[in-house]
């Protein structure tokens, strides 16, 4: 893991600590999401190099997110929290599925109503 990824993971760990809802819904499983998407941290911070490792991680994350409504909603809350965290560019996070040509079950946007996903 590169130094920048270690720093970003540390920052995200601080951001996704349990707080008041709706972020509490996200925080319960966000560490797994952060771990899964570590290969994408460079892209989500700089917009450079959506690598094959990143795209493979995004593809696996998309598949696991769509497993059922509970997984879908939890991953949505988490992605919104990650995209809104310091150090992550929300525009790059939103563009990640398209950059990797990965069908994704929801828009990574603060306009997404995670509770309506099923």
What is the typical, i.e. mean, pLDDT? 79
* Spatial separation of the terminal alpha carbons: 34 Å
Alpha carbon gyration radius: 13 Å
* Uncertain runs: 6-26
| Backbone shape | globular
What's the β-strand tally? 0
Relative strand content = under 5%
What percentage of residues falls in helices of 4 or more residues?
A: 55-70%
Largest sheet: none
- Number of DSSP helical runs: 6
Backbone structural class: mainly alpha
Element pattern in H and E: HHHHHH
Please describe what this structure looks like.
The protein has 118 residues and is an all-alpha fold. The protein is built from 6 helices and no strands. Helix 2 (23-36) packs across helix 5. The radius of gyration is 13 Å and the shape is globular. The protein starts with a helix and ends in a 19-residue tail after the last helix.
Quick summary:
By secondary structure, the protein is mainly α. The protein has helices at 3-15, 23-36, 41-46, 52-65, 69-83, 90-99. Helix 2 (23-36) packs across helix 5 (69-83).
Task: Give the SSE layout.
Elements: H1 3-15, H2 23-36, H3 41-46, H4 52-65, H5 69-83, H6 90-99
What labels describe this entry?
globular, mainly alpha, 118 residues
